[in-house]
Specification:
Protein name: HTH-type transcriptional regulator celR
Pfam families: LacI, Peripla_BP_3
Order of helices and strands: HHHHEHHEHEHEEHEHEHEHEHEHEE
InterPro entries: HTH_LacI, LacI/GalR-like_sensor, Lambda_DNA-bd_dom_sf, Peripla_BP_I
Shape: elongated
Strand order of the largest sheet: 2-1-3-4-5-11
CATH architecture of the largest domain: 3-Layer(aba) Sandwich
CATH topology of the largest domain: Rossmann fold
Keywords: DNA-binding, Transcription, Transcription regulation
Radius of gyration: 23 Å
CATH superfamily of the largest domain: Response regulator
Number of helices: 14
GO molecular function, one term: DNA-binding transcription factor activity
Number of strands: 12
Length: 335
């Protein structure tokens, strides 16, 4: 019996099946815009039906690109794989590039080597652009920007002229603080994020602004590090020294879950003795006992938006920046 080898589908086959021009099919597959929604859907259906795969080698010769972008996370592997924020963010980045034929890599820092190997990786020819998540300070942001490759940040990099997407951390923190006050909390404290991160600084600022507007003092603070253990340690120290605190704004859900454990160690019940509001609306918020009242923060949407902005940069356009996404209060059991 003769076996006929099946030839791989071409871009022309995709265009024909989708009922669009070859140029339109190419723009959809390469992530270029603008392309109408009906045409985009038709091309994606044709790609799936035919099993089309872009010829990466041929594309690289023409475009001088490697066909990959990298998500740079200057955090250790332990931190990245223990915090659901990062898995949701990476999923969002994957979504942005799903139908483009562009691979999405992930690079993290090392406890001993720091961020230098990660920067070296990006500054070589391994990726055409980067999405940066969870950077500390401004030096890393400047170093990435100086690579002369397209970069978009999830979170304000603190360096003028760099593209980023973020939420209004101060406004969201103020909303969380006002919720605690509206529930009758008399003495409020906060467990902040790291003070070398824009999100940590801005969430503290929002807490203190809301307290000042209410005629209250916002000086009862303890610095955390966005981890469960860090949240537990900071909350334990704060509540031990200030047992009068009956309302606590914690700058991440993971830290808030640790703060609940700290309260339990001190014989405090949540929410009976201590009302608590977190930040992120992550899976941790619904798994905590009690479930967390928290501020919504969509890392998947943040990273997907950053990915779309990076695609624009890769296609020679300058995206609107900054993009500030909304946040809302999600009321559950802890306050």
């Amino acid at each position: 019996m003769q076996v006929t080898e099946r030839t791989a589908p071409t871009l022309d086959d995709v265009a024909r099946a989708a009922g669009v021009s070859r140029a339109t099919a190419s723009r959809v597959i390469n992530g270029a815009v603008p392309v109408s929604r009906p045409a985009t859907e038709a091309v994606r259906k044709a790609v799936a039906m035919l099993g089309y795969r872009p010829n990466v080698a041929a594309r690289a010769l023409v475009t001088r690109r490697v066909g990959a972008v990298v998500v740079l996370v200057p955090e250790t592997e332990e931190r990245v794989f223990s915090d659901p924020f990062f898995s949701r963010a990476y999923h969002g980045a994957l979504e942005a590039f799903r139908h483009t034929g562009i691979h999405v890599l992930l690079s993290m820092s090392h406890p001993h080597d720091g961020v230098d190997p990660m920067l070296a990786f990006f500054q070589s020819d391994h990726a055409d652009g980067a999405i940066v998540i969870s950077h500390h300070g401004y030096d890393f942001a400047r170093a990435v920007a100086n690579s002369n490759r397209p970069v978009v940040f999830v979170g304000n990099p603190g360096v003028p002229g760099l593209a980023y997407v973020d939420v209004d951390h101060a406004r969201a923190a103020a909303t969380a603080t006002r919720h605690l006050l509206s529930r009758g909390a008399q003495t409020l404290g906060t467990v902040t994020g790291p003070m070398d991160m824009f999100a940590g600084v801005e969430r503290l600022r929002g807490f203190q602004q809301a307290m000042a507007q209410a005629g209250r003092s916002g000086h009862l603070t303890a610095e955390g590090d966005f981890t469960f253990a860090g949240g537990e340690a900071a909350a334990f120290d704060l509540l031990s020294h200030h047992p009068e605190i009956d309302g606590l704004f914690v700058a991440s859900d993971l830290m808030a879950s640790g703060a609940i454990r700290a309260a339990e160690r001190l014989g405090r019940r949540v929410p009976g003795d201590l009302m608590l509001v977190g930040f992120d609306d992550s899976l941790v918020a619904t798994q905590s006992i009690p479930q967390l009242t928290t501020m919504e923060n969509r890392p998947d949407l943040l990273a997907r938006t950053a990915g779309q902005m990076l695609l624009e940069k890769l296609n020679g356009r300058q995206p609107e920046s900054p993009v500030i996404l909304p946040s809302r209060l999600v009321v559950r059991d802890s306050a």
